[in-house]
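Researcher: I need the complex structure. Ligand is NAP. Inputs:
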Amino acid sequence: MVAKADYDVLVEVTPTNVETAEPALGHIRGALGRHKHVVTSNKGPIALAYPELRALAEANGVLLRYEATVCGAIPLIHAMQEGLAGNSISRLYGVFNGTCNYILTRMAEDSLTYEQALAEARELGYAEADPTYDVEGIDAGVKLVILANTILDMHTTLDDVERTGITLLTPDALRLAEDLDCTIRLIGEIVPKAGVLRVSPRIVGKAHPLVVEGTLNAVTVEADLAGDLTFIGKGAGSTETASAVIGDLLYIHDRYVQGS
Ligand SMILES: NC(=O)c1ccc[n+]([C@@H]2O[C@H](COP(=O)([O-])OP(=O)(O)OC[C@H]3O[C@@H](n4cnc5c(N)ncnc54)[C@H](OP(=O)(O)O)[C@@H]3O)[C@@H](O)[C@H]2O)c1
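Model: Output:
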């Protein structure tokens, strides 16, 4: 299909595999090799093979866009590549995984155990049957790798991410944080100059802009000219992800369709 069909842009939205990136990687290579633009929401190929895919896109005179791979509806990649293009980024940190954020929100709100909050997240469809990918910080780590490699000029893999998940957090830990007028959030952080990528539960003051509730995502970017900017929005969901995919399609349309 990808190799033979007549189309202008491949929209690659197959399930993410962060070990092999397949079948998406093969689809994207095939499309770029045929001079077809690609828009993807699939983290695997971007986290594992961005330099190769970018070079292939450039060699074939087409674009590869991937806004939906990080923070769903938040146009973070677009903002960093376009709006903040003249800035140097000293640090970027935030809440990249809505499932963990929901679990931590519920543990703090109603003194639920991790297991109880996870069960609730599963019932509501926020957590998979096997939640490892989210709760061990892998999903957040993959998103950091994408931002580091595609925007911050770093060369990283998931193995470079110092990673601690939320599975060992207890209601007591959240209560202690509460006593300090703080709470706990799973924070992903990149410090480009130090080569640091880390995901870990952190104590955060309740008034901090990153303390968002439920399944929201929030990211603060520290930029030399613009100062600190915090982006908050829905990190997942069908229409929210579609927002990012459509934005990428229109980006390509504006650059490649005659007369637009
Ligand atoms: N949903 C979100 O909120 C969200 C947010 C950001 C990024 N993403 C990413 O977007 C992608 C899609 O997510 P989703 O939630 O829509 O997943 P999904 O509901 O599992 O849908 C995946 C689709 O891919 C199709 N598919 C599976 N294997 C295929 C193959 N080998 N060739 C062609 N099609 C294949 C499936 O078809 P069948 O049903 O026929 O198997 C299904 O239509 C994933 O990579 C995900 O990580 C999702």
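Model: Summary of the prediction. The CA atoms of residues 190 and 196 lie 6 Å apart.
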